[in-house]
Amino acid sequence: MDLSSLRRAYRDGTVSPIQIADRVLSIIDGDETPGVWIHRRDAAELRAEARALEAKYSRGQLPPLYGIPFGVKDSIDVGGVPTTVGCPGFAYVASGTAPVVDRMRDAGALYVGKTNLDQFATGLVGVRSPYGVPPNPFDARYVSGGSSSGSAAAVTRGHISFAIATDTAGSGRVPAAFNNIVGLKPSLGLLSTTGLFPACRSVDCMTIMSLTCEDARTVAAVASGFDARDPFSRAAAEGFRWYTGSKPQRVAVPRPEDRVFGDERSRQAFDDACKMLSTMGFELELISMEPFYEAGRLLYGGPWIAERLTGLEGFLNAHPEALLPVIRDILADGVPYRATDAFRARHRLAELVRDLAPLWKRVSALVVPTAPQHPTIEGVLADPIAENARLGKYTTFANLLDLAGVAVPARFREDGLPFGVTFLGPWGSDATLLSLGAAFHRKAGVTLGAMGWPYPPDEPSATSPAADELLVAVVGAHLQGQPLNHQLTDRGSRLIRVARTSPDYRLVALPGTQPPKPGLLRVGSGGTSIEVELWAMPLAGVGSFLAGVGSPLAIGTIEISDGSRVHGFLCESLAAERAEDISSFGGWRAYLGRSEGKGSA
Q1: Which residues make Cβ contacts (< 8 Å) with residue 33, sequence separation at least 6?
Q2: H helices within 259-364, ranges in order?
Q3: CA of 272: how far to CAs of 263, 276, 277, in Å?
Q4: pTM of the prediction?
Q5: Any catalytic annotation for residue 464?
Q6: Mean pLDDT by 10 residues, the chain (601 residues)
């Protein structure tokens, strides 16, 4: 059920969306695990959508998430479907669908249903829901983690390929670790939070739960984008680079004296993870964790707990009996805080962010255990507040410090429970973290989720696309996130990597084109290296793509900086005579961002 395997099967014609829909329905119907789903889509509707996909697309023109089944955490709106947020008395039928979910379906993904969660997304344990408690798939005595408990349970059990969930304080990372899957917590503002019922709005974050980092990257590239309706969306989300060619060499890890664990098995598992990073060639820098821990204490031990009341205070006062007692107690802790407390905390947080800035110039990532221990369901029910607080040791500070993070499986402990680590970095480091996570996950050699599936083989490399694909270099309006990128994705093309041409080219801004386009010209002298993206396009879609290329642009041969040659967009020299030379920017993105001071980001 990983994306790589399903996409390959769709390209080969060995499986169809209706077969996958039937398989998903059969797996879910045959799984008696409690607490996974709150609302499942009607089977007839799912099958009808699968058949419509088959009728709409030929095998050579598949969108990036064609026929991929996914679930949605039930704090995120899907039009016409109840949003419960884990509280039946609060439930409402959503009038619209969250943009992130719309993006999934527009890219061909099959929506399966709404997954369970800790009530009002408050908790890291996965036992705070009236809709049931999903047990850990490897030992039913242990928690599955929360608040995105049902999302993780559905992915690890093979019900779906990925889930759109949330991660405010660790709600996507902790259950990822406990279920042997990947949890991507993107940089804040990359994925729209429109249509999400807030837990703590200023630091809420949509998250992606999947079987591999490659899957998370593919979904994130579709899901991300600027949303003017979301005041926390960031302009840099449009066209954000989810792929990187950089190779990090140095990562930070907590000093031994700063490592907090609830059991020796987890401590040993993290020690082993650090050793594996060393064998992979990474230099490890030991750092103090106190600035991170101090920031983390502000989330549940400071005025941000009062922010959780902003959308719930009226309902809580009118219907206190509708909330679980533990949720009422947590929300009540936010009442005493004053505005002065909030400002003091904001000031201190700004100081911590500034103090940590030099670290990110030295290292590509901070590697921490995703969770310090793995509690039992019985233990959490006996001491719900303290056990939950302990689980957030390595997660609660991330969004307050404006960090990105990806939780990745590391190994199985001696008792058979999974253990994971999280790669953290500053805002915008998502692509680097995913590359690190993917390399680490593959090196760890663990199977996927709870199904025992092997890690999928690498997709064809940039220099060796599949036999039925053509490598195409794009330089302007066809770049990821740009207006004509759909002409690639509609044909099932996949982004291989970002590259640069040899230093023999000029780039010009063509006047009067809609949408705006650049032109790339090869020159005998005075050239420079220009940034391009390399896309693998199914041969079946090449003919129709070429038919849409008009003057002054043409498809020719472009030399890449590594000496390889690929097909790509070139420009007639006559058109360039009237165009502005923008070669000094080094690429179209950098030129577009010139007025905003964004560089090539």
Answers
A1: 134, 135, 137, 153, 157
A2: 264-279, 290-301, 304-307, 313-318, 325-332, 339-362
A3: 15, 6, 9
A4: 0.77
A5: no
A6: 88 90 96 95 95 80 88 97 95 96 94 95 92 95 94 97 96 96 97 93 94 93 92 89 75 96 94 94 95 90 79 83 84 81 88 94 96 95 90 94 97 94 96 92 93 78 64 91 87 84 90 90 86 89 88 89 83 84 89 54 26
- Domain locations in the chain as residue ranges: 3-444, 469-592
Q: Is 171 among the residues known to form the active site? A: yes
Q: Which amino acid, 493? A: S
Using H for helix, E for strand and C for coil, what is the string for 336-383?
CCCHHHHHHHHHHHHHHHHHHHHHHHHCCEEEEECCCCCCEHHHHHHC
Q: How many Å apart are CA 156 and CA 178, to the nearest integer?
A: 10
In DSSP terms, 166 is beta-bridged to 206
Distance in angstroms (rounded) separating the CA atoms of residues 197 and 130 = 18
As given in the structure block, the two tokens for residue 398 are: 């991330």
Question: Which of 147, 148, 149, 161 is an active site residue?
Answer: 147
CA 280 to chain CA centroid, Å, is 24
Burial of 409 (0-12, 13-18, 19+ CB in 10 A): buried
Q: How many CB atoms lie within 10 A of CB 22?
A: 15
Q: Residues 430, 434, 440, 444: what is their CA dihedral angle, to the nearest 10 degrees?
A: 130
Task: Write the CATH number of the domain with boundaries 3-444.
Answer: 3.90.1300.10
Helix (H) or strand (E) holding 74: none
Burial 495-508 (b: 16+ CB within 10 A, else e): bbebbbbbebbbbb
Range 162-183 burial, b when 16+ CB lie within 10 A, else e: bbbbbbbbbbbbbbbbbbbbbb
The structure tokens listed for 456 are 């999928």
Q: How many angstroms separate the CA atoms of 560 and 557, rounded?
A: 10
How does DSSP assign 376-425, residue by residue? BHHHHHHSHHHHHHHHTTTTTTTTTTTEEEEEEEEEE-TTS-EEEEEEEE
DSSP state of 170: S
Whether 73 is catalytic: yes
Catalytic residue among 5, 73, 161, 517: 73
> What beta strand segments (E) does 94-196 contain?
110-115, 162-166, 182-185
d(CA 27, CA 42): 15
Which amino acid does the sequence have at 598?
K
Is there a cis peptide before residue 147, judged by omega within 30 degrees of 0?
Answer: yes
Assigned fold of 469-592: Hypothetical upf0131 protein ytfp (3.10.490)
**What is the residue type of 472?**
V
- Report pLDDT for 496: 84
pLDDT of residue 155: 97
Catalytic hit among 5, 144, 171, 187: 171
Indicate the SS3 state at residue 160.
coil
* Segment 458-465 long-range contacts (CB within 8 Å, at least 24 positions apart): 459/4, 459/214, 459/494, 460/536, 461/496, 462/496, 462/497, 462/499, 462/534, 463/564, 465/496, 465/536
3-state helix, strand, coil in the chain (%, to 5): 35, 20, 45
Backbone angles phi, psi at 474, to 5 degrees: -120, 150
